[in-house]
């Protein structure tokens, strides 16, 4: 690249009749560089822009943001990387602004500023928990209009993990809490919640006796956020935002719960690469979390009893946590309840009237195993074989003309189609009238009364 002084000298020497080679030797530059500046192909102070690596992905980005104008740029970046984009995230955001890819949204431009205070959290002190309701989950999840995701975040390092739950009742909350803290590698000394009805009395904020037993079991204290102070647990709220925008927003149809759980786990691990600056030193979320001193966890979860309502399949199987369990024959389509006490190796399947119909060894979650009881297999085979018959099959290649009853019914239909039904036709038999008339003519006349 020529300086401004060299550019002036090159143009002056060219007007004086110097050749490009002579000018290049005089200035100590390459001939192609001199030629480019003299021909106007390059301008002093303007660098030649490298080919834009974003251009091949421009149409895809426009289509994604046209379909979802509020899609996060980080989510789009994850998708483009899988499609072969080699640029960095800041390069992508600059390209989005330069090409004006994101549609304008007027309501999003309006924001109300407010004061924000930064709360210091000592390492290993606090874990913040919150339920995240995700609308319109895949139908095969069987969770209704909303999926339930329990998110737990270390307040100091902001490392978070999340677990998909079937509902937000007390047993599912305990199960999800145990799974989250085990994914985090331990528990903080205190747990922070908003005013969940399964944790405390929403009006007073006092911890419920049932959840107090859970806190004692794990050896932690419980903190309840003040009413209408959701920012008090801002770390987990930000994790909720990331889970909703970078994972749930792009969950495809046809995904099982186990596959979706694998996706949220991968996102949480990837979020550990976020950079942080602590005391002037550059680090990451994962490095901060690794040095937090967390409490050890009990060997087994808190023994809460989990209930899950299921429908028996035609094969006599009941699905639970990514596995299938057998029941006796004769129950296809029936509603049953799976009972499992957390920490135990067995589960029970009962009817809605609480009659136990099966007991199985619990398979590992999401292993896709089919657990069958040998007695159920034998009984099912016997029931199927008993339904078979050794009678000769019906003969189909025979002549069977219309019967008289069918012909009469067809005639009735034809009459109705013609506008005269059997109810409208009145048949009068005159022979009956003739017989009555003959009988009256031959009948003896009554005797006249005579007076004495």
UniProtKB/TrEMBL annotation:
<dbReference type="InterPro" id="IPR001584">
    <property type="entry name" value="Integrase_cat-core"/>
</dbReference>
<dbReference type="Pfam" id="PF22483">
    <property type="entry name" value="Mu-transpos_C_2"/>
</dbReference>
<dbReference type="GO" id="GO:0015074">
    <property type="term" value="P:DNA integration"/>
</dbReference>
<feature type="domain" description="Integrase catalytic">
    <location>
        <begin position="119"/>
        <end position="292"/>
    </location>
</feature>
<protein>
    <submittedName>
        <fullName>Transcriptional regulator</fullName>
    </submittedName>
</protein>
<dbReference type="InterPro" id="IPR054353">
    <property type="entry name" value="IstA-like_C"/>
</dbReference>
